[in-house]
Amino acid sequence: MLRFIKENLTTIDGIEIYPLMSLLIFVVFFTGLFWWVFKANKNYLKEVENYPLNDDK
Questions:
Q1: Dihedral of CA 42/48/51/57: which sign?
Q2: For the whole model, what pTM was predicted?
């Protein structure tokens, strides 16, 4: 099955850019996410982590 897909994909011009773009998007997203987690205000994170436990509306 994979052989048929691979043969079809090799005939498309410019297809090699899509795996590179998806890897770049993945790396940028998770790098940004890790940066935000480490730089986030700790008081804000404490407040947000208690949201599910609060009964107040």
A1: positive
A2: 0.62
